[in-house]
C-alpha cells in the first residue's frame, strides 16, 4: 500500500529536519541527502516502514539495505567489528564507505533490512543533514532513492521525478558532492577485506590504510551485493562506451579531451566526473536521448566506480 499522494520538499533547516524525523518516527519514508547520493530512508528497526521502501522502489525484496549510523559506537551496537573494520571506520567515517559485518544478536534491525542474511551493511554518512536526521530518528535503512534499476538520484528533482507521490518527503540538501554510491567492503576471515562494490572512496585509499590489497569480488555465484545485478543504473537510452566520437544519431557524453555534447568533466577530473555522472544520465533521460556514446574514463581511483556504473548502465536489459 502506497499512500503518499503528495511528497513534500522539506527545507535544510532545523525545522525541516525535525519534520523529517517526525515523519520517520511515524513509519514514513523520507528521502535525504548524503555525500554520495540521496537515500530513501526508513527507521531500520521498523519492519513495516522498511517494507514500504521495497514497495516504493519496486525493488526485488532479496536486496539487503545499508543502515546509516551516527558513528563507530552506534555501529558496534548493531554489528560485530574486528580490528581491520575498526581501523577503516576510524580512518574513513563519516564518509563514503560501507562495511558488511556480522549482525549482533538482538540488534534492533528489521529482518527485511538484511534480507534475512546474518550480516548487515553499515555506513556513517558525512552529510550534515543526514547526520542530523540520524541523531533525531535513529539508525536509518536507506537504499538509493530511485525506482529499482534506474539511475541513482544526486538532486531532489531526481528523487521527485522517480518517487514523487510514493514517499512522504524529500529533505532538500541540493546536489550531492561525491555523486556515486559508497564503496562496500566486507571482512573475509584471515584473508583480509573483500571489495563488494567500487564507489566514492577509491580502493587504493583503503588499501593504503589496510597495508594490503583488497580481495577482488570475482565469484559470480556469491549472493553478489545486489547492486551488482547486471543491468542497473540504467537510463532509457542505449549506451556505447569508450567512444572517441559520436556516430550518426548518437549524443556524446564527453570526458577530458573528448568534448562531446555535454561532458562529465572537461578538464578530465575524476572527482568532478563522479559528481556529474548521474545528473548527466538523468538529463539525457529527460531529453529523451535514445543512443548515448560515452567517452573513455581512466580506470583508476574514482574512475573504477564511474566505469562500473557505466558498464551496468550499458548492460543488456532484463
Ligand atoms: O552511497 C550509498 O551507499 C547509498 C547512500 C544512500 O548511502 N546507498 C546505496 O544503497 O547505494 P543501495 O541499497 O542502493 O545499495 C546497497 C548495497 C547493495 O549492493 C546491497 O546488495 C549491499 O549494499 N548490501 C547491503 N547489505 C548487504 C549484506 N548484508 N551483504 C552483502 N551486500 C549487502
Ligand atoms: Mg542503488
Automatic annotation (TrEMBL):
InterPro entries cross-referenced by the UniProt entry: DHBP_synth_RibB-like_a/b_dom, Sua5-like_dom, Sua5/YwlC_C, Sua5_C, T(6)A37_SUA5, TC-AMP_synthase_SUA5
Positions annotated to bind ATP: 59, 63, 119, 142, 144, 152, 197, 233
Protein name per Swiss-Prot or TrEMBL: Threonylcarbamoyl-AMP synthase
Domain of life: Bacteria
Similarity comment: family membership: Belongs to the SUA5 family.
GO molecular function, one term: double-stranded RNA binding
EC number: 2.7.7.87
Binding site for L-threonine: 36, 68, 123, 182
Top-level EC class: transferase
Pfam family, one: Sua5_C
Main location (coarse class): cytoplasm
GO biological process terms on file: regulation of translational fidelity; tRNA processing
UniProt KW keywords: ATP-binding, Cytoplasm, Nucleotide-binding, Nucleotidyltransferase, Transferase, tRNA processing
Residue ranges occupied by any YrdC-like domain in the UniProt entry: 14-201
Catalytic activity: L-threonine + hydrogencarbonate + ATP = L-threonylcarbamoyladenylate + diphosphate + H2O
Amino acid at each position: 500500500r502506497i499512500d503518499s499522494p503528495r511528497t513534500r520538499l522539506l527545507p535544510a533547516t532545523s525545522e525541516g529536519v525535525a519534520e523529517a524525523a517526525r515523519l520517520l518516527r511515524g513509519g514514513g519514508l523520507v528521502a535525504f541527502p548524503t555525500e554520495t547520493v540521496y537515500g530513501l530512508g526508513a527507521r531500520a528497526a521498523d519492519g513495516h516502514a522498511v517494507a514500504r521502501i521495497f514497495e516504493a522502489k519496486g525493488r526485488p525484496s532479496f536486496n539487503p539495505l545499508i543502515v546509516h549510523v551516527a558513528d563507530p559506537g552506534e555501529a558496534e551496537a548493531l554489528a560485530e567489528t574486528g580490528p581491520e573494520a575498526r581501523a577503516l571506520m576510524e580512518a574513513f567515517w563519516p564518509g563514503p564507505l560501507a562495511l558488511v559485518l556480522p549482525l549482533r544478536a538482538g540488534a534492533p534491525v528489521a529482518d527485511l533490512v538484511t534480507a534475512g542474511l546474518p550480516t548487515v551493511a553499515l555506513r556513517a554518512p558525512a552529510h550534515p543533514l543526514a547526520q542530523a536526521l540520524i541523531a533525531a530518528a535513529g539508525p536509518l535503512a536507506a537504499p538509493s532513492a530511485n525506482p529499482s534499476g534506474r539511475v541513482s538520484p544526486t538532486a531532489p528533482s531526481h528523487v521527485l521525478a522517480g518517487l514523487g507521490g510514493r514517499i512522504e518527503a524529500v529533505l532538500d540538501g541540493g546536489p550531492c558532492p561525491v555523486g556515486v554510491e559508497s564503496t562496500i567492503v566486507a571482512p573475509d576471515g584471515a584473508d583480509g577485506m573483500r571489495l563488494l562494490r567500487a564507489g566514492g572512496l577509491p580502493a587504493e585509499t583503503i588499501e593504503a590504510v589496510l597495508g594490503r590489497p583488497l580481495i577482488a569480488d570475482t565469484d559470480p555465484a556469491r549472493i553478489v551485493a545486489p547492486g551488482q545485478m547486471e543491468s542497473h543504473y540504467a537510463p532509457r537510452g542505449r549506451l556505447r562506451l569508450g567512444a572517441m566520437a559520436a556516430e550518426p544519431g548518437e549524443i556524446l557524453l564527453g570526458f577530458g579531451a573528448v568534448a562531446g555534447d555535454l561532458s562529465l568533466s572537461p578538464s578530465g577530473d575524476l572527482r568532478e566526473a563522479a559528481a556529474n555522472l548521474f545528473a548527466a544520465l538523468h538529463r539525457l533521460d529527460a531529453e529523451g536521448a535514445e543512443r548515448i556514446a560515452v567517452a573513455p574514463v581512466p580506470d583508476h581511483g574514482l574512475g573504477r566506480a564511474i566505469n562500473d556504473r557505466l558498464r551496468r548502465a550499458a548492460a543488456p536489459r532484463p
